[in-house]
TrEMBL record:
PROSITE patterns: MFS. This is MFS family permease. Keywords: Cell membrane, Membrane, Transmembrane, Transmembrane helix, Transport. Residues 13-414 form the Major facilitator superfamily (MFS) profile domain. InterPro entries: MFS, MFS_dom, MFS_trans_sf, MFS_Transporters. Residues 421-431 have a biased composition (Basic and acidic residues).
């Protein structure tokens, strides 16, 4: 183990990196499963409810474009405080104006806030965590998100059972965002605490960029990064986008499916919470597998499992034991998602320039979130035109195609052992240097 790995302290990043994430994700985890329920209570059709739920991912996609620029200029703490304030404003709009359009706008604003919040955490850990433990650190970040998403649905179920109102759950997110702001104001700014020295020692992996490991334009904008790194983003990014799409489809299809088969909102939230708990329980396993065996062995089982789950679900809508099948498939999807915990974050960190990661990560997350945004919109469109069963099956097939892409490209761009680019490698013209230590 290197001196870098020895000098790194997990304790040093627990509060600044993980506590705000847990609080924010707890609020999201409570609110997201009830969005389709609230939409239908306000008169939306099943397809419109899916469209409103999709506004979260659309907001994340559009938020990725300025997020890299914003975090690079004002710092991660200020960006996260602003994101928490924006999320609260959107949630209050959705709560206090009881219409479907207000709900859609509020969910969209939450998506914008989520993009900024997530990129700030991702950029921080990419810069300050040594490569030897990067997968575990980022899988832990993903696991903390999942912890919030596991606790949130149980909180939602309890509030619905207590108040009889699905919309009352929205107050959980408002309270969580207030707690995030308090924590960020009380704790020291991590960028000042860790400083440039830690940023420098995280560079034991050769990133995308020039031969010296620097980006072609490290401080440039997201659009410049998309053009500069178009090859790797088109190949790895597309596969990662499919994985993000299946994850997003899961978060929309499960609540919609529960509404479609007539489950009670509190019962559906309970099932989703159980699946999220299983998902959370696997996050460290995923990080350990990635650090020991490579990123591929987390990405492929997870994406194949998500795909199979969608396909199986498509054939269970009208069977007598529809609720039991729904429960079983929800658990399968939770297991599959847990097995791939942190892989999107980790692969992005492997590829990003360490001196100025935010622009590249903004571009990378834009590609991933494009898939994440497109999936719920596609689910809503196919559900409206055909049925929710066809939508689920179609997403499963797309997922299998994405798994094949990742199987092809991850070994090339993120190899387990160091290698040098071939002299005639087409990526050489784009300034690509493969990761040297994964």
């Amino acid at each position: 183990m290197t001196g870098t790995a020895h000098s790194f302290s997990w304790r040093s990043i627990v509060l600044p990196a993980y506590l705000p994430t847990l609080l924010f994700s707890l609020g999201e985890g409570a609110m997201i499963p009830v969005i389709p329920v609230v939409a239908t209570e306000r008169g939306a059709s099943l397809a419109l409810a899916g469209l409103i739920a999709a506004m979260l991912m659309v907001g994340e996609l559009l938020g990725d474009l300025p997020a890299g620029w914003l975090v690079a200029r004002i710092g991660e703490r200020a960006a996260m405080i602003g994101a928490a304030a924006l999320a609260s404003a959107g949630t209050l709009l959705a709560l206090l104006v009881p219409t479907t359009w207000a709900l859609g706008i509020g969910v969209f604003l939450l998506g914008l806030a989520t993009a900024v919040f997530g990129l700030a955490r991702h950029a921080f850990l990419t810069s300050y965590v040594p490569a030897a433990v990067r997968a575990r650190a980022l899988s832990t970040l993903a696991g903390v998100f999942r912890a919030g998403w596991a606790i949130g649905p149980f909180t939602a179920a309890a509030i619905i059972a207590w108040t009889g109102s699905s919309a009352a759950v929205f107050w959980v997110l408002v309270a969580s965002c207030a707690a995030v702001v308090v924590v960020l104001l009380v704790l020291p700014d991590p960028e000042k605490v860790f400083g440039a020295a830690l940023r420098a020692r995280a560079t034991s992996v050769t990133p995308v960029g020039g031969a010296d490991g620097s980006p072609a334009d490290g401080a440039g904008g997201v659009w410049h990064a998309i053009v500069t790194y178009r090859g790797v983003l088109a190949r790895i990014g597309t596969g990662v986008g499919v994985l993000a799409a299946l994850r997003a489809s899961r978060t929309v299809i499960l609540p919609l499916w529960a509404v479609s088969i007539g489950m009670r909102p509190d019962a559906a939230a309970l099932v989703i919470g159980i699946a999220a708990t299983i998902d959370f329980a696997l996050f460290y396993v995923s990080g350990h597998v990635m650090d020991r065996h490579g990123r591929l062995w987390s990405a492929i089982p997870g994406l194949v499992g998500l795909s199979v789950g969608h396909i199986v679900l498509a054939f269970t809508h009208d069977v007598p034991a529809a609720v039991a099948w729904f429960t079983g498939v929800a658990i399968l999807l939770g297991i599959a998602n847990g097995l791939s915990s942190g892989v999107i974050l980790t692969v992005g960190a492997d590829l990003a320039p360490k001196a100025h990661p935010a622009p590249f990560l903004g571009a990378y997350r834009t590609i991933a979130d494009a898939g994440q945004a497109a999936a719920p919109l596609a689910v809503a469109a196919v559900t409206s035109a055909l049925s929710i069963m066809v939508a689920s099956a179609a997403m499963g097939v797309i997922g299998l195609v994405g798994a094949a892409m990742l199987w092809r490209w991850i070994p090339r761009y993120v190899p387990r052992q160091p290698r040098h680019p071939a002299p005639d490698d087409a990526e050489r013209d784009e300034g690509w240097t493969p990761a040297a230590d994964t």
